[in-house]
Design brief:
264 residues; alpha/beta; Rossmann fold; seven-stranded parallel β-sheet; 9 helices; 52% helix; globular; binds NADP nicotinamide-adenine-dinucleotide phosphate
Length: 264
């Protein structure tokens, strides 16, 4: 896949991995729509990096809102006339917490952004992609989609739903020219990522993760888990008990660290 002159819409593009994906696409010659809720932050980022070239736009939108998404996609089509790729990066896992401490709306909130938000965005761009006869949708998962983590029950469930939905969507859209991919970042040094004190040997930089996403697109991989996380999926298949034990240890340790940190 060559990105030159393609048009990409990236949600969650005002910070973290999404921002770096947008910048990396732009560096490869794509026209990029940077989307997130925070209009000021977005506009500053886009204005700061544009230097007068109208090859990128800031699109303030909230993936949890039908009208906002519809208007945002219209803006992109108005500016560039097409959408070759959508990266559904919006959202994060929030604070680590036990299910019973999280409150009755937490699961719904996680699904609203990660699952329904991605679905809403896909629904808005697919008609244009069908007309073009080509398009790519990248949905963002996490290793906890396959091996759920204590302290992140709702997030794990939402990411599992993203993976499952993406698989079926990919099959249903076969033959239309629209491809659906899943990309699962490793633990990444973002505003959200550093709030999870996971006992892992390494935390990855968002620009490196963004490069891995572009690489997976070029390789045509339907599923990509960079940063050494793929073996966890194999372990989950070969020995679910062991994989669960490992993730439980990571989750409970991170929960304890997060609580100690919060307690000062
Ligand atoms: N960091 C990690 O370790 C890690 C690991 C695995 C998976 N992931 C996944 O990677 C993605 C990005 O994570 P990140 O760590 O880069 O997060 P982040 O730094 O917190 O960035 C999240 C982005 O999403 C936007 N956003 C949040 N809610 C939104 C909404 N309702 N509508 C539109 N935009 C929204 C935020 O901007 P506004 O607040 O202005 O809207 C921001 O641009 C997420 O899907 C996350 O689950 C991250």
């Amino acid at each position: 896949m060559e990105f030159g002159n393609q048009v990409w819409l990236v949600s969650g593009a005002s910070s973290g991995i999404g921002l770096q994906v947008g910048l990396a696409l732009r560096a490869r010659g794509a026209r990029v729509a940077f989307a997130a809720r925070g209009a000021d932050r977005l506009r500053t980022l886009v204005a700061a990096s544009t230097a007068g070239a109208p090859r990128e736009i800031a699109v303030p939108l909230d993936v949890t809102d039908d009208v906002s998404v519809r208007d945002g996609v219209r803006t992109v089509l108005g500016a560039f006339g097409r959408i070759d790729g959508l990266v559904n990066m919006a959202g994060n896992g929030g604070a680590l917490q036990r299910w019973d401490a999280a409150g009755g709306t937490h699961l719904r909130e996680m699904f609203e952004v990660h699952v329904f938000g991605a679905e809403r965005m896909a629904r808005a761009v697919v008609p244009a992609m069908r007309r073009q006869g080509v398009g790519t949708i990248v949905n963002i998962a996490s290793t906890v989609a396959w091996v759920p983590m204590p302290g992140a029950a709702a997030y794990s469930a939402a990411k599992a739903a993203v993976v499952s939905w993406s698989g079926a969507l990919r099959a249903e859209l076969e033959g239309t020219g629209i491809d659906v991919r899943v990309f699962a970042p490793p633990h990444t040094r973002t505003e959200a990522g550093v709030r999870w004190p996971l006992p892992l040997p390494r935390i990855f930089e968002p620009d490196w993760v963004a490069q891995q996403l572009l690489r997976s697109l070029q390789q045509g991989s339907p599923l990509s888990l960079p940063g050494g996380n793929l073996p966890l999926l194999w372990l989950q298949r070969l020995s679910p008990t062991l994989a669960t034990r490992l993730m439980n240890r990571i989750g409970f340790s991170a929960l304890q660290r997060a609580q100690e940190h919060a307690g000062g």
